[in-house]
Amino acid sequence: MNAPSLDDIVRYLKQNNLRIVTAESCTAGLLASTLAEPSGCGAWLEAAYVTYSEEAKIDALGVEEALIDQYGLTSEEVACAMARGALRISNANLAIATTGVAGPSSGDGQEPVGTVCLAWIFKNESGIHTYSEKTHFSGDRNQVRQAATQFALERIPDYYGKSVDAV
């Protein structure tokens, strides 16, 4: 099965009235930039936060320093906290967060280059539904960023379907 195109993802977002806020670290705004490529992006893109540093995650998104200390910057727990923070300060009903090690070297020395943690949080009539994954991508820095962006977009239908089924 082929990966969905950006047009397919955008059509899905519009059909399901999904408005996205992104909270990006290792993708450094590439996810939001990709979502903004098609004209009319204001229909599905609400806001975007690039919080590369630990301090930015804490100050802009309200990620707790203790959580970072306990799990590390490259963790599903931090990705979920980033997504929760972005959702809280926006009018979106879907938050996507990315945090990881794009390379060329491992910033924290704990996770190998290419490790990315992502979170998707959906807000619907039945509440808040949180999903996260830790994965690994190969390639240079920009290939990791591009792969993480594509992965984040491709997983939207799967996780949205689960959140709707939870109603």
Features of this protein?
167 residues, alpha/beta, five-stranded mixed beta sheet, 7 helices, globular
Give the total of beta strands.
Answer: 5
Instruction: Return the domain count.
Output: 1
Q: Averaging pLDDT over every residue, what do you get?
A: 94
Radius of gyration: 15 Å
User: Beta-strand level of the residues, as a percent range?
Assistant: 15-25%
Helix content: 40-55%
Organism: Oxalicibacterium faecigallinarum
Protein name: Competence damage-inducible protein A
Pfam families: CinA (PF02464)
Domain CinA C-terminal: 8-156
What do you see in this structure?
This protein has helices at residues 6-15, 30-35, 54-61, 65-71, 76-88, 141-154, 156-165, and strands spanning 20-24, 45-50, 94-100, 115-124, 127-136. The chain has 167 residues and is an alpha/beta fold. The chain has one domain (6-165): Maf protein, CATH 3.90.950.20. The chain has a five-stranded mixed sheet, with helices on both faces. The longest helix has 14 residues, at 141-154.
